[in-house]
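Marked as duplicate of an earlier ticket. Keeping the data here for the record.
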Amino acid sequence: MRTAIYPGSFDPLTNGHLSLIQRGLKMFDRLIVAIAVNPKKTPLFTVAERKALILDAVANDPRVEVDDFQGLLVDYAKRRKAHVVLRGLRAVSDFEFEFQLANMNRRLSNELETVFMMTGEDYFYISSNLVREVASFGGNVEGIVPPNVLTALRQKYATVTPAAATKPPAKKSASSPGKKR
């Protein structure tokens, strides 16, 4: 059975991610979507929420497993007995970073290969960071995230309206901390 790991933060899952999952399943019998947990970052969605959103978006396809991990990808791959990592490339700017990661992973474990897949032309400009930012200001991200993720984003940002997001911050008073009198 050919198994690949598709690692990422998936915070949130985008249609670009979903496209790579679907296309990856044409190359591999099984795909482990591995949510990388980085304690230095504060995600919008919890790991449990991201798992549920991904499983729902792939319609609980039995060929897709959703898992999470901390630490080095090579260690996780060894534990899962996987030898292939699937990575998406959106633009030329992604290549340099992904190339460095792939070579470092190969240096750490010569049994681990990385397969790069170009993101579809409809999704090359989409990133989770951009989706979060647009959604946080009340922007419409319909069509660039799966419907279940759109619903979840709207719930997370329910109190944000476009007018509230663009309102300038209140001025600090003279007694604000850090301001000398």
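See parent ticket for discussion. The longest strand covers residues 30-36.
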